[in-house]
Amino acid sequence: MRYFVTAIGTDSGKTLVSAIITEALKADYWKPIQSGTPRDTEVVSSLVSNNESAFYREAYLLNKPASPHDAAKEEGITINKANMEVPGSGRDMVIEGAGGIMVPLNDNDLMIDLADLFEAEVILVSNLYLGSINHTLLSAETLIRRGYHVKGIIFNGESNPESERIILKHTQFPCLLRLPKLDKVDKGTVKYYAEKLLKNWYAGELVEER
């Protein structure tokens, strides 16, 4: 299976979530578009403990930490979906997007279009902050309206039970994991939450541990 990790916005925790899923499934990892540094591929690789996962090079490695269409324009290129082919892995593949679901790749294509192109299930990361209910529900509505298959949602940040409850009620997405605000992230952290994720991955139900 292919899993496309996207989010309600930038700096939401997609890379940490991608590392956790990669570790849990012993999957391969690919970030097709990287804007700015550090490279998320290097970060994920440094956090994964298993010896089976492979990490593939980006289709577009851009210098400017900005929207992909802007970063590409700065370098005089246009991102072309035709140039992005999922690496030939026979394993589960975690594909990490850049920014939020509606970030533009060029004048016509958006980040979420890649999930359709790659025939991947979507995992939505919702980082919890004032206003995140609105941003999460708008993202979910877009995914539902466009007919994407959503594997589930992962909440990231200091727990807000009421925000989480209302989001799950309106989206009807399974909650795969709740990540607290973490002061330190290392291989041990990722392995710990990978084991928690696996408890919910197939059932689509979260065992409450707060």
Describe the structure using short key phrases:
single chain, alpha/beta, Rossmann fold, 7-stranded parallel β-sheet, 34% helix, globular
Portion in helices: 25-40%
In the CATH hierarchy, the third-tier topology is known as Rossmann fold
Give me the Rg, rounded. Answer: 16 Å
Number of strands: 9
Q: What is the makeup of the main sheet?
A: 7 strands, parallel
SSE succession: EHEEHEEHEHEHEHEH
Distance between the termini: 30 Å
How does the helix and strand content classify structurally? alpha/beta
Assign the CATH class. Answer: Alpha Beta
Tell me, what's the shape?
globular
What is the typical, i.e. mean, pLDDT? 93
Unreliable stretches: 204-210
Task: Output the strand order for the largest sheet.
Answer: 4-2-6-1-7-8-9
CATH homologous superfamily caption? P-loop containing nucleotide triphosphate hydrolases
Approximate strand percentage: 15-25%
Number of helices: 7
Short description:
34% of the residues lie in helices and 19% in strands. It is of the alpha/beta class and 210 residues long. Helix 1 (14-25) crosses helix 2 (40-47) and helix 1 crosses helix 7.
